[in-house]
Amino acid sequence: MSPAPRYTSTAIVLHWLLALAIVCAFGVGLYMADLPFSPLRLKLFNWHKWAGIGILALSALRLLWRLTHRPPADLPMPAWQASAAHAMHGLLYLAFFAVPLLGWAYSSAAGFPVVWFGVLPLPDFVPKDKALADLFKELHGLAAYGLAALVLAHVGAALKHHFIDQDGLLARMWPGRA
């Protein structure tokens, strides 16, 4: 059997950079959320916001790449699995944008501007409003947990294809040579 066609090198790099950024931002978010007010907590909040804006930028770049470069054809699998995979990818892309945008909205509504890497001030796109900040904080957290669940399901499906189906699906996105 010939090896399955791979994604482009750019798609692979964007995939793994985004995966690493999401895992790190989620981990920092979990850790910092329950810290008492301190310089460390403020520093972690800034890092978390910087990561969120980075994730937003990487997501836009990844979506642009995806829209302009056709991915490899689906591997042979039952129609329901192909449909589920396409739905999963759509939900992942939605979450890639929703989670950081909700975090940015929360920061804006709470009155804490986002200054990317301490250099580039980003505009507030919602007014300062305590009730709105509380709503966006809750939505950001729920969306982040939703993204985490989607990522775990995505990883689980990739591992199922690798270890059970042994169909070469994982190798198409794995860094390096197939």
List key phrases describing it.
178 residues; mainly alpha; two-stranded antiparallel sheet; 4 helices; 2 strands; 2% strand; elongated
Produce the secondary structure layout.
Layout: H1 9-33, H2 39-68, H3 79-110, E1 115-116, E2 120-121, H4 130-165
Helix pairs in contact: 1-2, 2-3, 3-4
Tally of DSSP β-strands: 2
The shape is elongated
Could you describe the largest sheet, including whether it forms a barrel?
2 strands, antiparallel
Percent helix, as a range, is 55-70%
Share of β-strand residues: under 5%
Average pLDDT works out at: 95
Question: Span between N and C termini?
Answer: 13 Å
Provide a brief overview of the structure.
Helices cover 69% and strands 2% of the residues. It is an all-alpha fold and 178 residues long. It is found in: Cell membrane.
Overview of the structural elements:
This protein has 178 residues and is an all-alpha fold. The protein is 69% helix and 2% strand. The chain has helices spanning 9-33, 39-68, 79-110, 130-165; strands spanning 115-116, 120-121. A two-stranded antiparallel sheet has the order 1-2. Helix 2 packs across helix 3 (79-110). One of its GO terms (biological process) is respiratory electron transport chain. Pfam families: Ni_hydr_CYTB. It is found in: Cell membrane. The chain crosses the membrane at residues 12-33, 45-65, 91-119, 139-159.
